[in-house]
Design a protein that fits this description.
The protein is of the alpha/beta class. It has seven helices and nine strands. The N and C termini lie far apart (about 50 Å).
């Protein structure tokens, strides 16, 4: 199937080999295709293949390897930087010039991009949130991408003789004006019993949405879940459980 068809949300756990015969210029689409077989219920090792043609004369400057390099740069940029991953006219021109005339160029520095959270992939948003908590002094532990049991990360902070642990659930949306629902709070609460946590435990839900629904706020207050919405994201790098 084409990458576009393969990334629509199918679950293909009977398959454990993915071969990308036709490269898609948006690495997020390609990753979605791979994730179709790497879902809950997959019991075998997943193998991903990217056949590339190397020109006998041009070597690293041939089209397949240049396109592969571009895809890797855009994938890493999307994970590290707040920027979209889809192909642009500039990407096409750069690939043409680099294939024919120019040496490989380095990835631009993250400071060149604006803090537009809505353009991130969900996994990139999770990584950004955990990085901010790391800057706040927490020890950060990423949970597995698959079977995370309702938590995207565990962060711990030791103060004198006490250890504080935050169970982090991230919810990303590209829908303008959307509010985070109560399902996110229920997920992070269910995850508590799945992890061996030392010391004081506080669940937290972080979202780029403008706020939380009334149901979400009600459940969070009753169960002691911390809520961080779009307006509070900048405070994460100085966050404290107290």
């Amino acid at each position: 199937m084409s990458p576009c068809a393969g990334g629509v949300g199918l679950t293909l756990t009977a398959v454990n080999h993915v071969i990308h015969l036709s490269r898609w210029w948006n690495p997020a689409v390609e990753d979605q295709c791979t994730d179709r077989v790497f879902r809950i219920g997959q019991r075998r090792t997943v193998h991903v293949y990217l056949p590339l043609a190397r020109h006998p004369v041009f070597g690293e400057n041939c089209f397949d390897l240049r396109l592969h390099s571009l895809m890797n740069r855009k994938r890493e940029m999307n994970r590290r930087v707040l920027a979209p991953a889809s192909a642009s006219d500039g990407d096409v021109r750069d690939l043409y010039r680099s294939t024919l005339t120019e040496p490989r160029r380095e990835v631009r520095d993250a400071s060149e991009f604006s803090d537009d959270f809505d353009l991130l992939e969900p996994t990139a948003f999770e990584k950004w949130v955990l990085e901010q908590l790391g800057k706040a002094g927490y020890d950060v532990q990423h949970t597995p991408r698959s079977h995370d049991r309702g938590a995207d990360g565990l962060v711990t902070l030791r103060v004198t003789d006490e250890t504080h642990t935050i169970i982090v659930q991230c919810k990303h949306t590209q829908q303008s004006g959307a509010k985070c629902r109560g399902d996110a709070i229920k997920e992070v609460l269910r995850s508590i019993s799945s992890y061996n946590i030392v010391g004081d435990t506080r669940p937290i839900v972080v979202t780029n949405a403008v706020g939380f629904t009334r149901e979400a706020v009600r459940i969070a207050r009753r169960k002691g879940v911390l809520l961080v919405d779009r307006g509070s994201l900048s405070r994460l790098r100085a966050w404290r459980t107290t």
